[in-house]
Write a structure and sequence with these properties.
Four copies of one chain form a homotetramer. Chain A has about 350 residues and is α/β, with parallel strands linked by helices. The first copy, chain A, has helices at about 15-20, 45, 60, 85-100, 130-140, 150-160, 190, 200-215, 255-265, 290-295, 325-340, and strands at about 5-10, 30-35, 65, 80, 100-105, 145, 165-175, 215, 220-225, 230-235, 240-250, 280, 305-310, 315-320. The longest helix of chain A is centred in the C-terminal third of the chain and has 17 residues, at about 325-340. At the A-B interface, strand 7, strand 10, strand 11 and helix 10 of A face strand 7, strand 10, strand 11 and helix 10 of B.
């Protein structure tokens, strides 16, 4: 069974990653790439400044870029991935939804809307049920599903594993790669021999999105998890891979090995792009792992990698890592798309 | 008044920084440089691979390196700075102390010994009183004073400012520069396009040293501060300057401006190398500061720079930065030396 | 004697460097800062995103930015420095010249115009005589002087020293710092763990400007030097300091020490910002120097540093380095301004 | 047909790359890994600090490391790859050769010996004939074949393509990645925000090895190519991939497109690890390619990538790039091993 998919905003950094990941996808076939008016009508290879480290797939290079409107996208497209800037997406996505499209979006707008599922397939697939609420409230035929921010998605699987011990409070610091800001988001003058202790809006995203992802859905309403989450976000001179230091206060007192075991045994999901094991965990004999350059491509960049687990007075501290433009962006949207197909929404 | 000083372990990265900082010191005159047996007898310029970004002072270049023993150091030296590896220092420093030398040491051994003052002159100058205890217990004529680890010293002045609001719990993540590991401590293969989430022993140093520095001394015994401190330490691809994200739980509920004001108004000290203002604080209009490359040389690298202050559910979060080989190492020892002179121990 | 100076395009990366260098200048007093219409009327501290590693001088922070027009600049300004983008400069500079201003410009437009002196004060001060030609041909009361491109200025002093051996052919490769492209010129995604083997227009600048600088001026016309110069320009992940590998074919056969001696003994010039020695040269015992991070600030960033001199079959090879935004940009314009004052053009 | 192979010096950076590349080799099966006495007897996973970005193949992780002596290597090993330090290799390799082993070595010793073939299979496979000379002169039963230095191998295929136009003189500057120096060869303090204009011995290797590779073998003696080659070698802050700027003086005057065409049409070779096309060439519409991060893995890191071709007064200038630890080291030795099998030497 082939699902025809399209990419809204296909020429940017995340758009290019979508194309790379979809290149050998078993069921998704790329049938439309959209961009701004200025790029419409051009061959994809002309419209995009291709900067991924594998060649452009030949058939995509020659594909014509169309404008980001429902009219311009071919009718046989069943599923759209969105990597539009959030300002654009908040205008454009509703038009596609009114037109009946199913959209799996990486854009940050509407992630916290009470009727929009924010989903990591292994963590909260049941939240897709919010689509019914959404359709009722908004009168849409389509469906809008969001994946979380790259820094949120790196941490939440590990928090989900900890929740069995009673997750109460989270303090997290991030060491984020420059690719998270897009191709031109961080200048070289800003980051060489330097670090930036602020990423606009990022801390709030981590604090709110994580509580929604870990929240419970009763079929009608979604309750946020009541953990107190506070984040400090930093940009460092790495290309890909967000590394995070987490301090978690817990109700119970598991030892380090119980925490590692809880992470390792967190169930995965049977979808084409899902990793075999969601969280890989380094033991105490390798305290200097995970590292961005060595571990970001674990399971094709779709796994989370943790390590450095140690108990504290009130809980546990540890480090976690994920590939921010794969598991944290394009791969996350594709996985949500696979879940939508699996669950029959497409 | 001129004080003749010597440097134990003068050829390494911190030793070179000592020489650079002492070059134009108003009262300290460098009279002895020691190194391992292999270097003894050589001109300093031959023994050291000079890698600081100012030229070797000419008179030091021609100075003869002597072995690190009390016999080899000239008798008229009044004060010794130590930047020996801790394994060497724990053997060698006692020999100098038995011989009556006053040693201001950057080496990590004995920092937590109950009779050794661990001092930041602006924060806990009264702890020097431990020298009396030390002399009594060890039968030394000299005096041994330690400065804290570079990552500790970056944070503690800000914690000291917060203590008026009832400091209860600290969670801190560090983004540390490679110079903290010495000239060959971190290879380029380890750190380019990467970050290392572990620095051996560093987290424990931050957790224990900070409680000693903030502790109270009653003239006989030193009580550690009872805050719960937990740290995660990371190495990132920067040359100099440690950046730290601090989450502090407080008994009271100051707002962000009260916290900034408490930091800005922390008293300094009147010593030659001390900064005019100990903590510089960026306001909310510059949330992306401090940054290592732009702010590490504030007040010749002797100030701490803070920013990003925001309240949390249980206290406050903020970032702080200091130059790790100046304020965090050689400059810290020199400032302790100035305090020893000022207080009449030399 | 105080000379009132202004900066055209004062808010950009080079503009900020001008302000830093002029801060303690013995005779130049900054009296005007201009920028685009959008910034006019603002305080300088608001208009510029200050990114130099020393604080904004207080009196400049409060200075009002004016538009880049002759009308907006106060009449008592005697000398203007220009760091405008070349596209803007080619429109705006003539207006100032018609109005009688003397402009020392770092902008690349008109550098190769036959009636515009392109000057390095130590190398070709006599080329200032072209101002007479310029005034006659253009009917200007003012005077326009250019300094060369940052990559050219790094190499030309060494070529000038070699010319006594009959300079015939030059092949040069550059390893250029990102600051040469301005604050946002190179993105972090482009340069981390990477190098860019192309800088638009740079190779041609090196090839033509160097021949003009080394050319001879007979009082009426300027003849280009007839050396065959070919350049390959690369951007690498360094902040400041251009390093260059030069292969020079010579008519004579000097040995390496004669070449080093010719470089070291190249005469300097007695101007406030000039280095004591124009070219510092490392000998064969330090083949790994010059290095950007260690050597770029030699003599406050105004010296050229050479090393690695070795003979080849047809001449010599060596490396040279200069600070691209000091000796290669703002400092170069200031030095030309000092020469203009010294020679009585102001 | 399976060939049992071993790796001499299997725990270092190049040794790890050998293991990674051999993991899915169609005919070579890894049967022995050697290291120094200190590592002998350990499991490979314990002896090596694995730092390649794919996991250790499981069966290798458990393999026992043996000492680097002919006695310790199993008798059924047909072919040895050597990535020993050259000082060690010059002692150890002869022992294996006397014992009849065929050794395809990446170590730099003996590369210029007149009876040792220095081979790139696509360029000079006929030089393998030197093995007969070698056996006669040295009385060995085995055979010793060397591949060139990583910086040489990046350039020589392009020079071979140019030779049809009469290659007369080469001036080359390199921008080399840190992995070329081994895991601990370049410290982070040396290279962050910096470049090193010297790599010990590297320039001479490029100058001599390239002339041997391009030389002609008449069945008895090898004549070096008579081009005048001079190199300047630099280390820059990249992980993998050597970028080189070449200036080549030619007897004829091809235009840029003829040069590109000559490079593109250079014949490849039909061996398992050989790339489909030896030299990939970017045209004038992409002057900023090749770039290390984007292009180093072209054809699994076994291709050379060129670009920036422009004519000069006396020939041509261009840039070339190859993956230094794949095409430039482990992959080069493996390809030579494949050639030895193909030609019947094993």
């Amino acid at each position: 069974m082939t699902v025809h998919v399209g990419i809204l905003g296909a020429t940017g950094a995340v758009g290019q990653r979508f194309i790379q990941l979809l290149d050998e996808h078993p069921t998704f076939e790329l049938a439309a790439v959209t961009a701004s008016e200025a790029s419409a009508g051009k061959r994809y290879a002309e419209a995009a400044k291709w900067r991924v480290d594998t060649p452009i797939p030949e058939e995509i290079a020659d594909m014509e870029v169309v404008e980001t409107t429902p009219e311009a996208v071919p009718d046989d497209v069943d599923l759209l991935f969105s990597s539009l800037p959030s300002g654009v997406a908040s205008d454009v996505e509703p038009a596609f939804l009114e037109d009946g499209y199913v959209v799996s979006s990486n854009s940050s707008n509407d992630r916290m809307a009470p009727d929009v599922p924010l989903t990591i397939p292994e963590i909260n697939p049941d939240h897709l049920g919010l689509i019914e609420v959404q359709r009722e409230e908004r009168g849409w035929d389509g469906a809008l599903v969001k994946n979380p921010n790259c820094s949120t998605i790196t941490m939440v699987p590990t928090l989900s594993a900890l929740d069995e011990f009673g997750l109460e409070r989270v303090r997290v610091s991030t060491l984020q790669a420059v690719s998270g800001a897009g191709y031109s988001g961080v200048t070289s003058m800003e980051i060489i021999d330097n670090a930036l202790p602020h990423i606009g809006g990022e801390e709030e995203k981590m604090e709110t999105e994580s509580r929604k992802l870990l929240g419970s859905f009763d079929g009608a309403e979604l309750d946020l998890h009541d953990a107190d989450v506070s984040a400090s976000c930093n940009r460092i001179p790495t290309i890909d891979g967000h590394l995070e230091n987490v301090f978690a206060a817990l109700a119970e007192e598991p030892d380090a090995e119980e925490v590692r075991e809880a992470m390792r045994s967190l169930p995965g999901i049977d979808l084409p792009s899902a990793p075999d094991q969601l969280i890989h965990v380094f033991g105490e004999e390798q305290p200097d792992r995970p590292q961005p350059r060595l571990d970001r491509t674990t399971e094709n960049g779709m796994a989370v990698v943790a390590g450095g687990v140690e108990t504290t007075v009130d809980g546990v501290k540890y480090n976690c890592l994920a590939h921010n433009t794969i598991r944290g962006a394009a791969g996350a949207s594709i996985l949500n798309g696979e879940l939508l197909v699996e669950e029959g929404w497409i």
